[in-house]
Amino acid sequence: MPKKLLMNMATNLCKTIKSDDVQNMIEQYGYPKTASLIKKDIKDEAEYKNFLIKQFEPTNILTTSAIIKIIIKFYSIVTTNYDTTIEEAIKTINYIYKDKNIEKLDYEFQDLPDLSSIKLLRKKNIVYLHGYKKNETFLLTEEDYKLFYPSNYSTEGIESLQNFLKEIIESMTLVFIGFSFNDKDFCDFFKRTKDKIESQKNLINMTYNNPKQNEFNHFAFIKFNNEKYDELEKILNDLGIKVIYYFDKYANLEEYLHKLEKTKVVKKEEDYPSV
Question: Which member of 1, 87, 156, 211 has the greatest number of CB atoms within 10 A?
Answer without folding.
Answer: 1
